[in-house]
Amino acid sequence: MAKATKTMKAMTTTQETAPQEATPTMTTGLDALKKMEDSLSDEMNGLSAAFEQIRIPIGGVTYFEMPGEDPEKPETVKEFSAVILHHHIMRAYYKEKYTGGNNPPDCGSFDGVEGTGEPGGNCETCACNKFGTGENGAKACKERRRLYLLLEGEMFPLVLSLPTGSLKDFSRYLMRCLPKWGKSSGGITRFSLVKAVNKGGIAYTKVRFKMDRKLTDGEMAEIAPLVLNVKAMSQTLTVETITETKNIATPEELTARMAG
């Protein structure tokens, strides 16, 4: 995936780099995507396209893991800015405790209404969608929200799966930005992570959202086709494409990566 390195540095903050004041623009990735449209059609013919994921570590670690040139060595950043092209609910139920890997859930849903798999059926009345059926009084069926994000310098959207503990904050954020932007794709959102502790004393990580700026009319026009394409693609997803997105790296490993 091609990146505008200098711009990405201006839009992300690591432990050693202070936030930049420069106002970002989202046209770079869109222009590059237009130029490569024909070649992409040829190259991806017969293949299934899947967006790369931004991962959130476990254990209260406050660094995002971003896709890099080497899949084994993701880049780590404390915050980044992006346009939310589209977002939707996602549910996943595992009969056995998830321990890592890319195994799909036993049952999943991309609309929060109808589950596919075992037990499947209506999500609202499903026994797995009740508090107390999972660990620590939670639901056995985990509810997340999948965000499709366009970062400056990226040719393709990246996916961020919001964990359950961040959903209320995301709802509050939408209530703040919608009156000003009209829709979540109408501006640039700044993402960061904060450490929190649940009732059981277990540390976890929450996503924090902040409005950066509203897109210009020109940027909105440029981004509109991509928004429609991402929405259409999200409607073709299957349960097999759902996997838990938590990172199994330890805090010590994340700290070592940042130091390196």
Q: What does this protein look like?
A:
This protein is an alpha+beta fold. 25% of the residues lie in helices and 29% in strands. It is built from six helices and 13 strands. The strands form three sheets. Strands 1, 5, 6, 7, 8, 9, 10, 11 and 12 form a nine-stranded mixed sheet that branches. The chain has a two-stranded parallel sheet with strand order 2-13. Strand 9 and strand 10 form a beta hairpin. The chain is globular.
The main β sheet shows up as: 9 strands, mixed
Instruction: State the end-to-end CA separation.
Output: 22 Å
- The number of helical elements comes to 6
In the predicted model, the low-confidence regions spanning at least 5 consecutive residues are 1-24, 244-260
Structural class: alpha+beta
So what's the overall shape? globular
Give the number of DSSP strands.
Answer: 13
| CA gyration radius, whole angstroms | 19 Å
Quick structural summary:
The protein is α+β, with helices and mostly antiparallel strands and 260 residues long. It has helices spanning 5-11, 27-35, 37-43, 167-181, 217-234, 251-259, and strands at residues 53-54, 56-57, 64-66, 75-77, 79-93, 107-109, 114-117, 121-122, 141-151, 158-162, 187-197, 203-214, 246-247.
SSE layout and pairings?
Blueprint: H1 5-11, H2 27-35, H3 37-43, E1 53-54, E2 56-57, E3 64-66, E4 75-77, E5 79-93, E6 107-109, E7 114-117, E8 121-122, E9 141-151, E10 158-162, H4 167-181, E11 187-197, E12 203-214, H5 217-234, E13 246-247, H6 251-259
